[in-house]
Amino acid sequence: MIRVILALVIVLVGCSSVGRSCCQMRATQRNDLVEFVRAELEKAGLSLTFLGIPQVESSFNPNAKGKDGSVGLWQLQPATARSFGLRVDNQVDERLSPEKSTKAAVKFLKHLKNRFKSDELVIAGYQLGETKLLNILKRGGKLPAQVERYIQRVYLASLRLSSRLA
Questions:
Q1: How high is the pLDDT of residue 104?
Q2: Distance from C-alpha of 72 to C-alpha of 158, rounded to nearest angstrom
Q3: Cβ within 8 Å of residue 123, ≥6 positions away
Q4: In the CATH hierarchy, which fold is given to the domain comprising 2-165?
Q5: Predicted model pTM
Q6: How many CB atoms sit inside 10 A of residue 82's CB?
Q7: Whole-Å CA distances, 49 to 20, 54, 145
Q8: Could you report the per-residue pLDDT of 101-139, keeping only the tens digit for each?
Q9: Contact 46, 110 (CB under 8 A)
Q10: 65: helix, coil or strand?
């Protein structure tokens, strides 16, 4: 029993330094992604508030996969991705490319911004989809509580990220 515990301690101690360097590498990659997204948003003249979207959607994980078919850093749906220039088929899924998906997401955000004007409605449109948001607005309805919480999470995430970049 003592040998088993001792072996386990040795394995855990040995792995901790490997795990630490792996975590540091992931943190560096994540910081590079955050910086890339920030630069693309600025280049497009969009608010840095939208920096919170990939944080909320995927925690800046370019390989994230949602239960609803969304994939990548921005958790784009296949149809939305295709609409904004990404290839999504049986052979290639460009939503998994941080660069290509970010450029597509920025195009989508720019489209939503031109249509809805306010950052809050852009975020709602990103989460709901443009058509659903339009239907809510046409009926004079209120945004669902889930969407209100999503908007708050995006704002909070963008504030946290912006304070780290400053």
A1: 98
A2: 19
A3: 49, 50, 53, 150, 151, 154
A4: Lysozyme (1.10.530)
A5: 0.82
A6: 16
A7: 31, 11, 20
A8: 999 999 999 999 999 999 999 999 999 999 999 999 999
A9: yes
A10: strand
What is the residue type of 151? Answer: I
The two three-digit tokens of residue 145, written as one number: 């509580």
pLDDT tens digits for range 10-49: 434 444 444 444 445 456 677 899 999 999 999 999 999 9
Dist. CA 119–CA 116, nearest whole Å = 8
Question: Using CA atoms in the order 31, 34, 40, 46, what is the torsion angle rounded to 10 degrees?
Answer: -150
Exposed, middle or buried, 127 (CB in 10 Å: 0-12/13-18/19+)?
A: buried
Q: What are the extents of the domains in the chain?
A: 2-165
Q: How far apart are CA 110 and CA 130, in angstroms?
A: 12
Tokens of 43: 């280049």
